[in-house]
């Protein structure tokens, strides 16, 4: 059974405490009152004299704590108290005839009570007002019961902006036995009582509301709008993933001769796969809507695959021994972007001609590609090292800009 904080009891029963401060009467008066009230009492019918009149039942909910909010199963577990009040004209008396007794408490199984159910329960639809609870009866016929319990209700989650998401969960209370013309639910106040609420470590409650949703049967909706505290997921999930993303392009700054490039990119890919698995365990297995971070990780996985292919390409280029295997237009681009070495040219030729040649080793493999202009005194040579430097720097800047745009794009679209 749920333990109710003392502060909540003081709020709920402030009127009782005041009346009990002047309580009078004896046990004989109480027993005589009980015998008088229950002499012809029946608990099987609504407490209304005119059967065409509805019975009015007032609800006031107090939230104690949020025990669990499971996005995967789509459930929310609450610890709450519901104060239920109604009027039973058969339980009224004149206090002066019974030792000035104005109210007394006895077991709820002895009186009529409204049977209410949690319509959004994810478990059984058991009666909320258990017979195990007591009720307080006042001399004017008012009856009050305050059953408390753990409520596990279904909740639809929108994980699009996870982990900076907000959710709205509703606890729907209904009475299936009576029509709206036979029982009316009244709202004590337009929001859920938060007097003794214990803050949850993962969720903040922005606002609560209580609305009448009566149609065929009496029904009330107790709604809560919750915002996730994203600090934990930001530190343990978002920041590590971003670091892995920004570390990926640096593979092209590793010397190709070290032999560590391919292992570096595969390690980054597997690390992202692990984080994708961790996120998948914390979000619902639904297709609409999917969490934006799932799309982000999928795109980053494709990006990481691209880097693996580019790394293989650079290793193939590194294995080239004849510079003539690179296209001439590509070597000209390398030359024009300044990736070359310059030496003094002592063999001038006609200024109208440009000599382009390749220095050939003894095994007929060229290691340098040279441009020699007749009106210049400088001979400019593109070596294979220059080509590899150009490829590595170009791929580094290209992939770095790509990941920056990917991260900024998803950050702005999903989380800002």
Low-confidence runs of at least 5 consecutive residues: 13-22, 342-366, 373-379
What is the structural class? alpha+beta
Average predicted local confidence, pLDDT:
82
How far do the termini sit from each other?
43 Å
By CATH, the topology of the largest domain is Acetylcholine Binding Protein, Chain: A
Give the fraction of residues assigned to helices: 25-40%
The helix tally amounts to 8
The beta-strand count equals: 15
Keywords: Ion channel, Ion transport, Membrane, Receptor, Signal, Transmembrane, Transmembrane helix, Transport
Protein name: Neuronal acetylcholine receptor subunit alpha-6
Subcellular location: Membrane
GO molecular function: extracellular ligand-gated monoatomic ion channel activity; transmembrane signaling receptor activity
Structure at a glance:
The protein has 416 residues and is an alpha+beta fold. It has two domains: 26-228, Neurotransmitter-gated ion-channel ligand-binding domain (Acetylcholine Binding Protein, Chain: A), CATH 2.70.170.10; 230-324 and 382-415, Neurotransmitter-gated ion-channel transmembrane domain (Methane Monooxygenase Hydroxylase, Chain G, domain 1, Up-down Bundle), CATH 1.20.58.390. The chain has helices spanning 6-12, 14-20, 27-37, 231-247, 261-280, 292-318, 328-336, 384-415; strands at 55-70, 75-92, 103-107, 117-118, 134-138, 140-145, 148-154, 166-174, 183-187, 203-212, 219-228, 341-344, 354-360, 366-373, 378-383.
């Amino acid at each position: 059974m749920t333990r109710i904080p003392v502060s909540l009891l003081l709020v709920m029963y402030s009127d009782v405490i005041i009346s009990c401060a002047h309580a009078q009467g004896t046990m004989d008066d109480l027993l005589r009152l009980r015998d008088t009230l229950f002499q012809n009492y029946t608990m099987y019918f609504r407490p209304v004299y005119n059967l065409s009149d509805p019975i009015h039942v007032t609800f006031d909910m107090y939230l104690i704590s949020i025990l669990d909010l499971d996005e995967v199963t789509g459930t929310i577990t609450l610890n709450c108290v519901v104060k239920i009040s109604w009027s039973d004209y058969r339980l009224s008396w004149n206090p002066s005839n019974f030792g000035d007794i104005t109210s007394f408490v006895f077991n709820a199984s002895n009186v009529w009570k409204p049977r209410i159910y949690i319509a959004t329960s994810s478990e059984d639809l058991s009666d909320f007002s258990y017979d195990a609870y007591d009720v307080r009866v006042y001399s004017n016929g008012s009856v009050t019961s305050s059953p408390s319990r753990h409520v596990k209700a279904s909740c639809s989650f929108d994980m699009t902006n996870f982990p900076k998401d907000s959710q709205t969960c509703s606890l729907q209370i209904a009475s299936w036995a009576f029509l709206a013309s036979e029982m009316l639910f009244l709202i004590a106040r337009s929001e859920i009582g938060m007097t003794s609420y214990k803050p949850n470590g993962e969720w903040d409650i922005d606002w609560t509301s209580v609305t009448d949703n009566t149609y065929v049967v009496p029904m009330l909706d107790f709604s809560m709008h919750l915002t996730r505290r994203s600090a934990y997921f930001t530190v343990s999930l978002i920041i590590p993933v971003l670091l892995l993303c920004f570390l990926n392009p640096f593979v092209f700054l590793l010397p190709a001769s070290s032999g560590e490039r391919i292992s570096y990119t595969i390690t980054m890919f597997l690390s992202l796969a692990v984080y994708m698995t961790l996120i998948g365990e914390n979000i619902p297995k639904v297709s609409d809507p999917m969490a934006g971070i799932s799309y982000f990780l999928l795109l980053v996985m494709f990006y990481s695959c691209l880097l693996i292919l580019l790394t293989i390409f650079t290793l193939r280029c590194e294995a080239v021994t004849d510079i003539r295997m690179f296209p001439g237009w590509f070597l000209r681009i390398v030359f024009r972007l300044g990736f070359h070495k310059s030496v003094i040219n002592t063999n001038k030729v006609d200024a109208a001609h440009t000599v382009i040649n390749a220095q050939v080793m003894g095994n007929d493999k060229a290691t340098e590609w040279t441009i020699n202009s007749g009106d210049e005194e400088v001979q400019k040579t593109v070596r294979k090292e220059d080509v590899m430097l150009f490829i590595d720097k170009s791929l580094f800047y290209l992939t770095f800009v790509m990941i920056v745009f990917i991260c900024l794009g998803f950050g702005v679209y999903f989380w800002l």
